[in-house]
Task: structure prediction
Amino acid sequence: MFSLVGKIAIVTGAASGIGLAVAERFLAAGADVTGLDRSPKFGRSFPCIQGDVADESQLAAAFDGVAAQHGRLDIVVNNAGIQPLGVGFADLTPQLLERTFAINTHGVALGIKHAARHLGHGGRIVNTGSFVGTIGVPGGSAYAASKAAVIHLTRLAAVELAPRGITVNCVCPGTVATPAVLGIPNNPEIPFAESRTPLGRLATPGEVAAAFHFLASDEAGYITGAILPVDGGITAGWERYDLTPPDESIWKA
Ligand SMILES: NC(=O)c1ccc[n+]([C@@H]2O[C@H](COP(=O)([O-])OP(=O)(O)OC[C@H]3O[C@@H](n4cnc5c(N)ncnc54)[C@H](O)[C@@H]3O)[C@@H](O)[C@H]2O)c1
Result:
């Protein structure tokens, strides 16, 4: 079940965190995986091309290279991203907006464009969104907006590529225990997420990778345009809602 044997996959941002977990999970399921990451720190059990997803020529060359080497491409995961959270509108700069959107949003839009040149019927694109792309959080400014755009790009691509039998979906993680989160000294996001997430803890990268695996599989062939929260329930609702229970007369005839 959910075999990826024989599938040719590219995962961007595969040198760390969620992307690394996705690449390793795809490998375990039998896929042939190539990573694309700007970091030179690979040393992984799969090949990784060094490149910047915000640079269209580098992105296109990487996708072309993998497709040429294998004769086709089956799965593309547009995951590379930066997470400049904690910047309110008062501190927002054009430079922060431009760089955040260049990587998180343009990187996904162009990833879809160049994936679609190579994917055939049954092809899969899975993008990485974020729970903050679906709800408002203070300090989200550039980052959360860049992820909201990824969510809508997913829907746009899903309808445009459906006639070719290509599915496009988006995984929206909550707070995940990756270097991007754990590497910030005394990161206040960690205790906050633990206390506000209904399941009471951060996600592991592996738990998030499981959703990518399902959406990349043949079994997910009728799912497209889906925005899948993997967030411990943090977007399911409020943990508190102050109310006065109604008088019984409300439901008694
Ligand atoms: N960790 C979380 O809590 C969380 C929550 C929701 C969404 N996300 C999203 O998940 C994705 C992965 O995040 P992570 O937590 O694993 O982070 P991470 O920092 O551990 O890994 C991100 C990887 O992307 C690479 N990368 C960054 N910019 C790049 C670029 N321009 N071109 C190529 N590669 C680039 C980095 O080198 C790194 O290897 C991001 O899109 C992030 O926004 C993370």
About this structure: The helical segments are 17-28, 56-70, 94-118, 141-161, 179-182, 189-196, 205-216. The chain has one domain: 8-229. The mean pLDDT is 96. Residues 94-118 form the longest helix (25 residues).
